[in-house]
Amino acid sequence: MREKIILVCSECLSRNYTSTKNKQTQKERIEIKKFCPRCNKHTLHKESK
User: Fold this and answer.
1) Would you say domain 2-47 falls under CATH 1.10.10.10?
2) Does the reported pTM lie above 0.90?
3) Residue-wise pLDDT tens digits, 1-49
């Protein structure tokens, strides 16, 4: 079962991306470096609660 997650920029806290993950195999939170259009640079995006 894949569940939807929201990725939040760690610098400006804007919710930029949505993704899915399998919660049975990945129990920890996802952290990905992605482009933030608000900061206008690549930043670390973390999975929100």
Assistant:
1) no
2) no
3) 899 999 999 999 999 999 999 999 999 999 999 999 999 999 999 999 8
Q: Which tokens in the block code for residue 17?
A: 């991306």
Domain ranges for the chain: 2-47
- The token pair at 4 is 């939807």
Cβ atoms within 10 Å of 47's Cβ, excluding its own: 16
What is the tally of helices (H) and strands (E) in the chain? 0, 4
Nearest to 13, CA basis, from 41, 40, 38: 38
Specify the residue for token string 């949505």. Answer: 18
